[in-house]
Write a structure and sequence with these properties.
heterodimer, A: 391 residues, alpha/beta, 8-stranded mixed β-sheet, 3-stranded antiparallel β-sheet, 40% helix, 21% strand, B: 600 residues, 6-stranded antiparallel barrel, 13 helices, 32 strands
Chain lengths: 391, 600
């Protein structure tokens, strides 16, 4: 069980809305299709769970709120408003914080953007996924390119901060195809872009099809070239990668997602959400995971006030490993001083010195101005490098 | 004490799977050696591995009490022997402790290669032989045809052959009667000075070293001081007993009897199988001829997958040797695999069994290097050295010539697979000596180099004949051969554990397969890795493992951390099982997989 902690710390708040109109074939997130959702019951449960977290962690300061899913743009705006208000009254200090909502670019949802703004949302992240109709069809999306463009226009008229997602490295995608599609996206002058390579996740419809040879993906060499091209193009468009798959104009980075990558505390509300909350042991954290199936989560919250199913104390060493794993995703890398301040030990205590030496010599990692980073040639190899680096 | 004329000492000889152990079970059950409750299949095979594989590794002995049709009580000492060629020496020493044998032949399969090998050994030991046709109740049983085969191929008279089914119990009484009627009683003088044969010895957790003896003359009893004539050591007897099959203590064993003794003997290696045991105060005039000690013929290196397990491997090998004096081991160190042992085995099955026991009984994961035989390296200077390990091969310029061991192989195979088997033998550099027919099956005699046999001959023979071919061999001689040392280079670094001696004509094909296999087994690195097979400085096969270009997770947010961290931990564990060759990491299972490869 989570242990109450009166520690005062910044914390990013994640809210998971688990419902979708349709399950996308590539998606392995905790999303579910239901004919009917009892919105009132869900709102009550979400607020109830937030209250229970407040009792356990009264002194946190919310640094951002993120509505993810599922499809949070299916959430009634009143619910969004009630949640934002509850979080602010529990953990707010009056400052404006980043409040993001993920949205699908359908006309129905775009029609609600204004309501979300009134609820307190100040940043919207739109799942455009592709600027090609055939690709949207392959990806199992319900919208087409023209709808997506309209939704983007609506969003930009309403919000100061608009981001959208694209999925690339799709079957048969050439460098030239992607170059054209990405140029079109950059020409829209977005301030933030998430560009993900298509990967096959276990248990998805694509997994099933892929294993049966229904389609192929770019080979490793080609995928690496697509990644390099992406980073070069976004850089010259003034939207450099600040994380493996995320690109922003300087200052427009997602504060909420930075919290994950920088190893800050975060709280997960709703089915299947995860969190890292303060522990009374310095440098440690309490990890929690919520019940995934929406109905089971709802029943648990109604009964006990919390829908948690897993707890784990992450000791300072494990937490440092997590900080390394996530921190190297950031272009700026890991702030060595901040790392030492947080965990009480230097990052190098967790690294194999021989490997650090070798990988520095081969130009895959670098240490400059107090930051430990991956070089451009190291970025595409992060997982492999982590395996080598960890002592 | 039983009158000598009412004792029968006999073995059962058979091809593997012809029902030898089942027949032994049935004989024990029929004579009341074990209650229904204690009875289990293959009772004499006490090791798990024997039961699971359905094979006998260690010879076992059991004393049966039988009241014959003539009303007399008999003591029958049955010695169950291993059927596999690797353990042929076990068969030979059991046979020398008996006067007769039951030759068991599967009535549906007929004579097989090991039937021949084992029955010839029984004949050499001057045994009287009773032929038993087993599995007579199978629809495919053809007793008349099989009897004719036995007469034609072995030359045994099958008039008195007994038909039985060990599985269903049919004809068991007839088998017991035949043992009493047709096999001879031992002869020996109970009043002469003690003369007993040390048939086998093993380590028992409770009783210490146990010695299986066959008393030829005289009497052995508790408290007696005996002398091992060849070893020259003296021991006082603590216990004397027989197996029923449970161990039961008796007062003494006298001429003609089989049983066990324990004395204050520390290790199995202090007892020499075949030694003569006599009374220290009143020794017999002449020792028994003894046995040729079993010699390991296949060698390989065993290294712990986790280098920290080296002391555990050392202790485990020592423990196993307590019970199996037939394998040898000596410390070895490899540039890449670290510390381990060079071990000698009686054959490939023996190697597999030891490896499996190390894993099963001692929880050790091992890296096994290429199996090798003993080569005789004749140096230019005129001296000769025996090479057990390809890594120790001297510089070629100092070598005059190399000799390798050859075997005589007997293969029985149904006609339809003959072509494939002939091709296999030719591919393995075999020289055909004879081709005859036993009924509808061909009997092939081939001379083959042993190193081709240890490689993968047996597996391939089984696979191309769909399991129908049977095979037996004996070592014959050493012959000059055009052998070369093939090295495997990964990123330019020789991998000592993969180097092997091969015939020049085979080198290229084998090198190519090995390189291809390694390409799939070695994880990619940040640079291209050439994988080469070479003879001296000349590369004969090459593959290139491309450099890793991309390995990064596209999406990684708060909920993914735990899963990602677990993957990393797994990766880290895998790292422990890697061995560095220069700049390249090779996982230990790559060695096992590379060497297990099949050419097809």
């Amino acid at each position: 069980m989570l242990t109450a902690s009166h520690i005062s710390a910044k914390c990013a708040i994640y809210i998971h809305w688990p419902f979708c109109l349709k399950k996308c074939p590539y998606c392995d997130f905790n999303s579910h299709v239901r004919d009917h959702v009892d919105a009132a019951a869900w709102q009550r449960a979400m607020l109830d769970e937030i209250d229970h977290f407040k009792a356990l962690f009264p002194n946190l300061q919310a640094s951002s709120i993120f509505f993810g899913g599922g499809t949070p743009s299916l959430m009634p705006p009143e619910t969004t408003a009630a949640i934002i208000e509850q979080v602010s009254s529990h953990w707010g200090n009056g400052d404006d914080i980043e409040i993001t909502l993920e949205a699908n670019p359908s006309s129905v949802e775009a029609g609600r953007f204004q309501n979300y703004k009134q609820a307190g949302v100040n940043r919207i992240s739109i799942g455009v996924q592709s600027l090609r109709d055939d690709a949207l069809k392959f990806l199992g999306r319900l919208h087409n390119v023209s709808e997506a463009m309209t939704a983007l226009d609506v969003a930009r008229n309403i919000f100061d901060h608009v981001s959208f997602d694209l999925i690339y490295a799709r079957p048969n995608m050439t460098l030239a195809n992607w170059k054209t599609e990405l140029s079109e996206a950059l020409a829209m002058n977005p301030s933030h872009l998430s560009l993900y390579q298509l990967t096959i996740e276990e248990g998805t419809a694509f997994d099933h099809q892929f294993r049966r040879g229904r389609f192929t993906l770019p080979d490793e060499e080609h995928a690496a070239a697509l990644l390099t091209l992406t980073r070069e193009m976004t850089l010259s468009a003034g939207l450099p990668a600040y994380e493996i798959s995320n690109h922003a104009k300087p200052g427009a980075e997602s504060q909420h997602n930075l919290a994950y990558w920088q190893g800050d505390f975060y709280m997960g509300i709703g089915p299947g959400a995860h969190g890292r909350l303060p522990s009374n042991t310095q440098g440690a954290a309490q990890a929690h995971g919520q019940i995934s199936r929406p109905e089971n989560w709802l029943a648990a919250v109604n009964k006990k006030g919390l829908g948690l199913e897993s707890f784990e104390t992450i000791d300072p060493k494990d937490r440092a490993v997590e900080a390394l794993m996530m921190g190297l995703r950031l272009t700026k890398g890991i702030d060595l001083k901040a790392f030492q301040a947080r965990f009480g030990v230097a990052l190098h205590n967790f690294l194999d010195p021989v490997e650090v030496e070798k990988l520095s010599a081969s130009g895959h990692i670098a240490q400059e101005n107090g930051f430990f980073t991956l070089t451009p040639s190291g970025v595409p190899l992060l997982n492999y490098l982590l395996g080598r680096l960890l002592a | 004490m039983t009158d000598q004329k009412n004792i029968r000492n006999f073995s059962i000889v058979a091809h593997i799977d012809h029902g030898k152990s089942t027949l032994a079970d049935r004989l024990i059950q029929h004579t009341g050696g074990l209650s229904e409750r204690d009875m289990q299949e293959q009772v004499l095979d006490s090791m798990d591995i024997e039961r699971e594989r359905g094979i006998t590794i260690k010879a076992q002995t059991v004393r049966l009490k039988y009241t014959a049709n003539n009303g007399e009580n008999y003591v029958l000492n049955l010695m169950d022997t291993p059927g596999h060629v690797d353990f042929a020496y076990e068969v030979s020493r059991c046979l020398s402790a008996c006067e007769g044998s039951l030759l068991v032949v599967d009535a549906s399969q007929g004579v097989e290669a090991q039937t021949l090998a084992n029955v010839y050994q029984a004949i050499e030991n001057d045994h009287d032989i009773v032929t038993v046709l087993n599995k007579i109740d199978l629809p495919a049983a053809e007793p008349e045809r099989v009897k004719r085969q036995i007469e034609d191929v072995i030359g045994l008279d099958t008039e008195g052959a007994i038909e039985c089914s060990a599985k269903s119990g049919v004809g068991i009484e007839d088998v017991l009667e035949a043992v009493v009627q047709h096999l001879p009683a031992p002869t020996g003088d109970p009043s002469a000075p003690l003369k007993a044969m040390l048939v086998d010895s093993w380590y028992d957790a409770y009783l210490g070293v146990m010695v299986l003896v066959r008393v030829i003359d005289g009497v052995v009893k508790k408290g007696q001081t005996v002398q091992m004539m060849a070893a020259g050591t003296e021991h006082q007897i603590d216990r004397v007993g027989v197996f029923t099959p449970k161990g039961v203590m008796v007062n003494q064993l006298s001429a003609g009897e089989v049983g066990f003794i324990t004395a204050s003997i520390k290790e199995v290696s202090d007892t020499n199988v075949g030694d003569t045991i006599t009374d220290a105060k009143k020794p017999c005039a002449e020792a028994l001829p003894g046995f040729k000690p079993s010699q390991p013929v296949v060698f390989c290196g065993l290294f712990p997958a986790d280098a920290d397990d080296y002391p555990k491997l050392r202790d485990s090998l020592a423990k196993l040797r307590l019970n199996d004096a037939s394998f040898e081991f000596e410390a070895e160190s490899s540039a890449a695999l670290g510390f381990g042992y060079r071990c000698g085995f009686l054959g490939m099955l023996h190697l597999e069994i030891i490896q499996e026991r190390l894993w099963r009984e001692f929880d050790l994961e091992l890296i096994t290097t290429s199996p090798s035989v003993i080569y005789k390296i004749h140096m230019v200077k005129g001296d000769m050295l025996e090479l057990h390990n390809p890594s120790d091969m001297p510089d070629v310029v100092r070598i005059d010539y190399i000799e390798e061991p050859w075997i005589n192989a007997t293969i029985l195979v149904p006609d339809e697979f003959l072509g494939a088997v002939l091709k296999l033998c030719e591919d393995k550099r075999g020289i055909q000596e004879n081709l005859t027919y036993v009924g509808t099956r061909a009997m092939l005699n081939y001379r083959l180099p042993l190193n081709e046999v240890v490689y993968d001959f047996y597996d391939r023979l089984k696979s191309i004949s769909r399991g129908y071919a049977s095979f037996d061999y004996e070592m014959t001689n050493y012959d000059r051969s055009d052998l070369v040392k093939m090295s495997i280079l990964v990123n330019g670094e020789p991998v000592d554990a993969l180097s092997m001696l091969v015939h020049r004509s085979q080198a290229e094909a084998r090198g190519r397969v090995l390189c291809e296999r390694l390409k799939d087994l070695i994880p990619r690195a940040l640079f291209k890795i050439p994988i080469q097979a070479a003879i001296g400085g000349k590369v004969i096969a090459r593959e290139t493992l491309s450099a890793m270009r991309k390995d990064v997770t596209a999406k990684c947010y708060g909920g993914d951390i735990t899963r990602k961290k677990k993957l990393l931990e797994k990766q880290k564990k895998g790292k422990k099982k890697m061995r560095m060759y220069g700049k390249v990491e090779i996982p230990h299972d790559a060695f096992i997989a590379a060497l297990k490869m099949r050419e097809n």
